[in-house]
Amino acid sequence: xxxxxxxxxxxxxxxxxxxxxxxxxxxxxxxxxxxxxxxxxxxxxxxxxxxxxxxxxxxxxxxxxxxxxxxxxxxxxxxxxxxxxxxxxxxxxxxxxxxxxxxxxxxxxxxxxxxxxxxxxxxxxxxxxxxxxxxxxxxxxxxxxxxxxxxxxxxxxxxxxxxxxxxxxxxxxxxxxxxxxxxxxxxxxxxxxxxxxxxxxxxxxxxxxxxxxxxxxxxxxxxxxxxxxxxxxxxxxxxxxxxxxxxxxxxxxxxxxxxxxxxxxxxxxxxxxxxxxxxxxxxxxxxxxxxxxxxxxxxxxxxxxxxxxxxxxxxxxxxxxxxxxxxxxxxxxxxxxxxxxxxxxxxxxxxxxxxxxxxxxxxxxxx
Length: 367
Prior knowledge:
By secondary structure, the chain is an all-alpha fold. 71% of the residues lie in helices and 0% in strands.
């Protein structure tokens, strides 16, 4: 019997969780970040990071195929010993906690800036943690259903941005590669964080109902994220002039002020409200994954206690101190470095280790 059969998810849920983790809070500031690094050529960097990320995720899938009925923690314990599994559990728990914490605190900052200026961060954190705990309480199957719901109710958002194209200045994009490839590569490096989050595949893989579809799932999820990033970035690039876009902290929100409806005065407020659903996919799956890793480390089958402790610590920590935008940006820098190690370097190293180990065993048996 499969170890995680009681919590299996479909391919659609798998894709929605992965793409949701990517298309979260990093989206709002992405066009400004690309413009600062490479001007209006920054959109080219999205293709570079997309190819790198798809390749990295396919390597993750190849690694997980070596132990299909277990997570990366089970795989490490099987091939490298219990100590490696525990070390991996600590590293992944810290990574997913930091990923989720950066996402939820950035969301609170956006809510205070655009929606609830007079509400304390502690109250907003408590309001967000209630549905977070309720959804994550029952594991990846319920998280997958929630991710599907968010996907379908958010499908209209990218297309709504097409309404801003009536004022587009396509000449802003020309000439292409004005300063060569170096700025584009710098922009690609800065974009790695926006494409991160799919490292959750290391834990999510054994929960996938048909594991042979994992490679297709990671390719589709990354492609969906890239297309949304590309669409939103290009719209911002042709709406703002090349110097103006560098001055907006959230150009993805600011561009919405150009959309007018007779029955809505501030359309950006409506969009931010819907964005919260998308943002939640940056912390609900990762907080549950944190609880999963800590429970695995402590040899506990029930993840709910770890989740309760985490929610309490988040609420209490926010009551004591709430990061500012600058402090959150510093944490994003740490997270980007952490993501390179967890989502890119570690899978490649582990795949090579398993290959050499099997090669060595094969040579020893032949002797």
